[in-house]
Specification:
Elements: H1 3-35, H2 41-64, H3 85-109, H4 112-133
Helix pairs in contact: 1-2, 1-3, 3-4
Amino acid sequence: MTKRNRTGEAELKALQAALGAEHAAVYGYGVVGARIGAARQPDARSAYDAHRARRDELTRAVKDMGAAPEAASAAYMLPFPVTDTAAAIRFAAELEERVADVYSDLVRAATGDRRRMAAGALREAAVRAVRWSGESVAFPGLAERAGTPSPTASSPT
C-alpha cells in the first residue's frame, strides 16, 4: 500500500467519524430543542441547522471519495438525563466539544480544501461550545483529549 493510499484511507476514516459525530449532534439538538428554555431556542435552532448542513456536506465528501456514507443511528444514548434547561445547555456544550474532537482528527488527516473545511468546522464547534458553557480551552479538540482515546463515530451522545 502506498503512502497516498494510506493517507486517503485515513482521511476517509476521519470523514466518516466526523459524519457520525454530525449525525449524533443533529439527534442531540433535537433533545436540546425539546428541553431548552425559550431564551436559548434560537441558539439551539441555529446549531441544529449548522450541524445538518455539515452533515450533508460530509455525506457528499464521503461519496466523492467513492465510499458509502455512514448512516445515522436510530437513537443515541444520552450521557445524562436532559430534563430541563440547565441540563440541555450542559448537553449542548458537550455535543459541541465532541464534534470539535472529531474535527481535530479530520484536520490532521485531510489536506487542501477539506482540511480548511474541517478547521472551520472545528472553530465553529469550539465557538458554540463556549457560548453554551461560558468556558473555553486553548486548543479545542486537542488539549482536553490528552491521555484519552480518540472518539469514534459510534460514540454515544
